[in-house]
Amino acid sequence: YAALALINAALQDPIHRSLFNSRIRPLKLARGDAQAFERSTVYDRRAVEQWARYMAERERRILAGKWTKNHPYSIEDMEALTTTA
């Protein structure tokens, strides 16, 4: 669970493995940032760092009251919040 550890290192309030597996992992797979195999998942390192930046920004927005804690995780938000022009 190196990907989860990298994401949690960017957060004040770390996420649990169950949340990662149910909400983040499917998005990473859908976006092509990970490949699922029979017993494991391989994550692209640069994409993990991008997801960590997204999760940290999401956390900041929740703490600032801009988003609720129930704000859905999304590829669109991740790309919008982490893409530099």
Describe this structure in words.
The protein is mainly α. Helix content is 59%, strand content 7%. A two-stranded antiparallel sheet has the order 1-2. Helix 1 packs parallel to helix 3 and helix 3 crosses helix 4. The longest helix is centred in the middle third of the chain and has 19 residues. It is globular, with a radius of gyration of 12 Å. The protein starts with a helix and ends with a helix.
Give a quick set of tags describing it:
85 residues, mainly alpha, 7% strand
The description of the largest β-sheet is: 2 strands, antiparallel
Q: Which bin fits the share of residues in helices?
A: 55-70%
**In what range is the share of β-strand residues?**
5-15%
State the helix count.
4
End-to-end C-alpha gap:
31 Å
Task: Count the beta strands.
Answer: 2
Which overall shape is indicated by the principal axes computed on the Cα atoms? globular
- Written as H for each helix and E for each strand, in order along the chain, the element string is HHEEHH
Structural class: mainly alpha
Average pLDDT rating:
93
Spans of at least 5 consecutive residues with low confidence: none
What is the alpha-carbon Rg in Å? Answer: 12 Å
| Widest beta sheet: strand line-up | 1-2
